[in-house]
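A reminder before we start the practical. When you read a complex entry, don't treat the lines as separate problems. The point of joint prediction is that each chain is placed relative to the others, so the output describes one connected object in space. Small molecules and nucleic acid strands, if listed, are placed in the same frame. In the example below there are four entries. Take a minute to note the order of the lines before looking further.
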Amino acid sequence: MHVQQMIGAHPGAAAGVQGRASEALARCIEAAFDCAQACTACADACLAEPRVSELTQCIRFDLDCADVCVATGTVASRRTGSDAPVVRALLQACEEACRLCAQECGRHAHDMAHCRLCAEACAMCARACAEALADLGGRTH
Amino acid sequence: MHVQQMIGAHPGAAAGVQGRASEALARCIEAAFDCAQACTACADACLAEPRVSELTQCIRFDLDCADVCVATGTVASRRTGSDAPVVRALLQACEEACRLCAQECGRHAHDMAHCRLCAEACAMCARACAEALADLGGRTH
Amino acid sequence: MHVQQMIGAHPGAAAGVQGRASEALARCIEAAFDCAQACTACADACLAEPRVSELTQCIRFDLDCADVCVATGTVASRRTGSDAPVVRALLQACEEACRLCAQECGRHAHDMAHCRLCAEACAMCARACAEALADLGGRTH
Amino acid sequence: MHVQQMIGAHPGAAAGVQGRASEALARCIEAAFDCAQACTACADACLAEPRVSELTQCIRFDLDCADVCVATGTVASRRTGSDAPVVRALLQACEEACRLCAQECGRHAHDMAHCRLCAEACAMCARACAEALADLGGRTH
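Here is the predicted structure of the whole assembly.
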């Protein structure tokens, strides 16, 4: 992905206004889009399982997590002006969505490869959100 | 919109499991999609203003708010299984995004009709999020 | 929704550059967001049905239709500069997604209220897309 | 990204029903999310440029392209049931959006690094869409 390069190419980057938050945020943006895709694919794979009726909670978490991840990756990609309270609130929502989805997918990881992979993508994204939050000055609530 | 009817048609509705949260959540879902559209249109209208260079912070808030509103309206439309912590975290992020955007658009409301209308849509959505949050048992953070 | 008012408030509106396309496009934007919400809620309601395993094709159409509708409603809300080929291509994709989803939901309309309502929202959106396309000068492919 | 692994983990993959479309589609999904992020970041970077008033068409293409790419990457990530006409229509819309955005960003590539990088991401995605379309049996319109 072009995330890190795009951050370096922002007119504000030369002025050094972005500080060390850049790297953690870049990893978080990449992880968010990866996780959105993995969750979308996992919801769809769960839907194709013979025992789909036992996987409806997993599908619900997957779909919600995908929506939150796309919004987070998109909003976190903007640096013009300031919108720190919204970025922080979204990172917290995203960390929570990823944590819950990783937990639920983890329960099916032993016999469904899509859940194992999705749990992995979710755990990575939850960690990346937490690190980006720390770099942005921590939780507000 | 079909929001209220769709909530009533969910298999869980007959069982009465949704309680009184339904009405506040329905209003919130409608307000979120209305606000997403208004913010998208306002960002675009700001872009067409001769003094666009003075409106970049407004465009940033508009775009972020639109993204958060779509995610919130979508996630809040799901009722199967449970995902309350994520719904609550998103409602808080959405209320904050709408509040900030209403404030900024309000500063331009006297001479730009799109900002006046957008501030109105944002204020309605912020209020609807707060009421939906209260009905869901309040803030967690 | 504020759609029609937002179109009237665009700086280009005074100059009359939007012509009669406005009304058809406004209806299409409203229909697209309504349909996105209905499809999201229908996919979720299908997931909560005891016979979910027979509804997986319906859920697939619902989820795809919701994604296309959000993108179409968002892109169609912009008027600054020009992007007619993309607006047209999206309207065609959206009409197709809504037509297919209306058809599939229609098959379950007799015993599931959410599919009946969703088929209605999809049919309205398919029609609104076709009319907006006609006003924009018709199909390109 | 986990795209290729997620495709291999779908219950239908073992049955070999996905054929050779997999690789082209996987590249297309990755390119679509990369392009969505690059376009979002480029619109935001254009907004921070001193001569933003000359870049409004570029921002319009960027924002539209980002929306189409997210929808395309998401819909293309589903394989349960069938929805080929919608996938094809979206791939065509996405190829067109990426082609137009690559062209416009290309005009500013010599003096703005974000436009040069974004043009690159758009061109890659346009090509990936064309190849995925060819593998899916070609254009329908």
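Discuss with your neighbour: Chain C has a mean pLDDT of 93. What might explain this?
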